[in-house]
Design brief:
Blueprint lengths: L1 H21 L7 H5 L5 H23 L5 H11 L4 H26 L14 H14 L6 E8 L2 E9 L1 H10 L13 H20 L1 H8 L9 E5 L4 E10 L8 E9 L2 H5 L2 H16 L1 H5 L1
Antiparallel strand pairs: 1-2, 1-5, 3-4, 4-5
C-alpha cells in the first residue's frame, strides 16, 4: 500500500504539472503558450525525461543486479515494479505526449505575435517576416501590405502574398472566369494585387470621412474597419497614428489585408489571423516606441 500511494503521488505530480503548464489551467491559450519561441513544451518534455531517468536510476540502485530497462520491462509485462519506476514511466508517457503536442502545434498553428523581434536591426525586414508568415498559413489571409503614412501619403514598406492561393481564389470568384475554363495566369494575380494596393490607397483617403461619421458616437477616431464582402473580406487598420510635431511630418502605420475564401471568413479564421498580424506589427514596433 505504501508503494502504491507513493506511485500515485508521483503520477499525480506529473499530471498536475502537465495540466497547469500545458492546458488551460495556466490561463493562457495553447497557441500563446507553445508558439513564442516554440521552446516551452520541448523544454518541459526534456525536464520530464530527466526526472524519469533520475527515478529509474534510484530504483536500479535500490534493486541491485537489475537494470533500468529490466525494471521497465517488468512493469509492462508483470504490471509490478517499485514506485519510482511507476513514476518514471508516467513522466516518460507525459513527455512523449508533450513532444507530439509540440509537433502538432508547430505544423498546424501560426506563430504568436510575441515570436517576432521587438527590437530588430532591420525594421522593414521584420515587418516582411510577419506579413509573409500570416499570409502563407492556410485558412486565413491571402494578401497583406503595410504602409507608412507621412503627411497623409502612403508608401508601401512591406508585403505578404500567397500567389497560389490568390490564383485559386480568382478561379472561385464568379464573373472572373476566363475563356480558358477559368484558368487564370500569373499576370492575373499580379493585376489583382495591383487592384488591392490601389484599393488600400482609396480606403486610406476616405479614413477622415469615416472619422467624421463616427465622431458623434463620442468614442474617438476610427482605428480599424472590416468589409465582409460576398466573397471574402477586406481588413484595414491604422496601427499607429501620430500628429505632426511643429515643423515635422505626421507619421502613421496603415495595415491592409485581404481574405478571398468566404468559408475562412465565416469561421472567423481570417479575422483571427489579421488580429495576430496586427499584434505582431505592434510588437515589432515596441522597441521603436521605447526608443
Amino acid at each position: 500500500m505504501s508503494e502504491l500511494l507513493q506511485a500515485a503521488g508521483y503520477a499525480a505530480i506529473v499530471y498536475l504539472l502537465f495540466n497547469y503548464l500545458v492546458t488551460f489551467g495556466s490561463g493562457r491559450p495553447l497557441v500563446e503558450w507553445i508558439n513564442p519561441g516554440r521552446r516551452y513544451l520541448p523544454v518541459l518534455a526534456v525536464t520530464l525525461i530527466a526526472g524519469a531517468y533520475g527515478l529509474l536510476r534510484i530504483a536500479a540502485l535500490r534493486n541491485p543486479g537489475t537494470t533500468q530497462a529490466q525494471l521497465l520491462l517488468r512493469l509492462v509485462s508483470e504490471e509490478k515494479a517499485p514506485a519510482e519506476v511507476v513514476g518514471g514511466m508516467s513522466m516518460l508517457v507525459f513527455a512523449a505526449a508533450i513532444l507530439l503536442l509540440a509537433g502538432w502545434c508547430f505544423w498546424t498553428l501560426p506563430r504568436a505575435p510575441q515570436c517576432f523581434n521587438a527590437n530588430p536591426t532591420d525594421l522593414v525586414k521584420e515587418y516582411n517576416r510577419a506579413l509573409k508568415h500570416y499570409v502563407r498559413w492556410n485558412g486565413g489571409l491571402d494578401f497583406a501590405i503595410l504602409c507608412e503614412v507621412r503627411n497623409a501619403k502612403l508608401q508601401v514598406i512591406a508585403t505578404g502574398t500567397a500567389d497560389r492561393e490568390i490564383l485559386k481564389g480568382l478561379n472561385r470568384l464568379p464573373g472572373l472566369h476566363t475563356d480558358l475554363k477559368g484558368e487564370h495566369t500569373v499576370s492575373d494575380v499580379a493585376e489583382q494585387k495591383a487592384i488591392w494596393t490601389d484599393l488600400a490607397m482609396s480606403v486610406f483617403t476616405k479614413w477622415p470621412t469615416l472619422n467624421e461619421w463616427l465622431y458623434p458616437s463620442r468614442h474617438g477616431k476610427n482605428v480599424a474597419v472590416t468589409f465582409d464582402l460576398r466573397y471574402g473580406a477586406i481588413f484595414a487598420e491604422m496601427v499607429e497614428e501620430e500628429p505632426a510635431p511643429p515643423g515635422g511630418d505626421s507619421i502613421g502605420i496603415f495595415l491592409f489585408a485581404v481574405a478571398m475564401n468566404q468559408y475562412e471568413v465565416n469561421n472567423m479564421t481570417a479575422m483571427r489571423h489579421f488580429a495576430n498580424l496586427s499584434q505582431a506589427v505592434r510588437h515589432v514596433r515596441t522597441g521603436v516606441m521605447k526608443g
